[in-house]
Amino acid sequence: MICKKCSGGCASRLTAMTTGNIGCHQLLVDTYMTLKTIKQSVTEQKGSGPVIVLKLGGQFQAGDKPNANGRIYPFEVLKNAIEEIQEDIKARRVMGEFDHPPDAKIHLDRVSHLITGLWLEGKVCYGELEVIQKTPMGAIASALIESKVQLGISSRGVGDMETTIHEGNEYYKVMPGFTLVTFDVVAEPSVQGSYLSIRESREKLLKQLRKTAPKKVREEAEAMLLDEFKKNLRG
Question: Which domain, by its residues, includes 94?
Answer without folding.
Answer: 24-134+148-189
